[in-house]
Specification:
Layout (H helix, E strand, L loop, with lengths): L10 E5 L3 H13 L3 E5 L2 H11 L3 E5 L7 H9 L9 E6 L3 H9 L4 E5 L3 H15 L7 E5 L2 E4 L2 E4 L4 E4 L2 E3 L3 H11 L6 E2 H8 L10 H13 L6 E4 L3 E4 L4
Parallel strand pairs: 1-2, 1-3, 3-4, 4-5
Antiparallel strand pairs: 6-7, 7-8, 8-9, 9-10, 11-13, 12-13
Helix pairs in contact: 2-3, 6-8
Amino acid sequence: MSSEQPISQKHIVIVEDEPDILEILSYNLKREGFTVSCAAEGVEGLGLIKQSLPDLVLLDLMLPGMDGLDICRALKSGGATAHIPIIMVSAKGEESDVVLGLGIGADDYVPKPFSPKELIARVQAVLRRTADAPVSGLSQANSNAIAANGLLIDIDKHQVSFLGQPIKLTATQFRLLYHLACHPGRVFSREQLLDHAVSDGVVVVDRNIDVHIRGIRKKIGDEHVFIETVRGVGYRFKDLY
């Protein structure tokens, strides 16, 4: 039997200054079996995280004393906290801050108002990725091939197929799809996709990413949702939780 700690028994720190939201987050996580610690102020939250070294942090962006972006920077700057996954909890009006947060190391975000069911799913998905556990419905026969619900991406052969039928993608479309599929559930901004998924020498401005994504969807079939749009932020490959 594996000695790895079950996801539901892991420790989560919530840093949130709105009492009602803090109560909802804490209640739903505890109901799922997580151990939860809470802080309502930025400096207090950073100290709690450094002291307890939790398995995951739920971090509001707008906090008294020290905002969420500064906390994220401090945690990701190195040392014992650099590996701790962070999910930002953000109001829609803070979307530009979410993009910045993802760029400095946050793993995902949950928009306010949020669904408790989605919150739990996002937390579990990030914890699975952090533990390098296999995602249900997604397999990697080797480091260069990914299979997900009938979609097969083979980087060695530079081929994509869906339900056995070949899908002809451009080089840029292939790199975008492969990069997203390698990180299921993780949100990438357009800028990040430009940095990590577009070949050197290929001129692509950030909004052209949208055109490439639409092209991928059309070729696979719009009714088959593999790439999800995260409004105001970017895209993610659907996490099959």
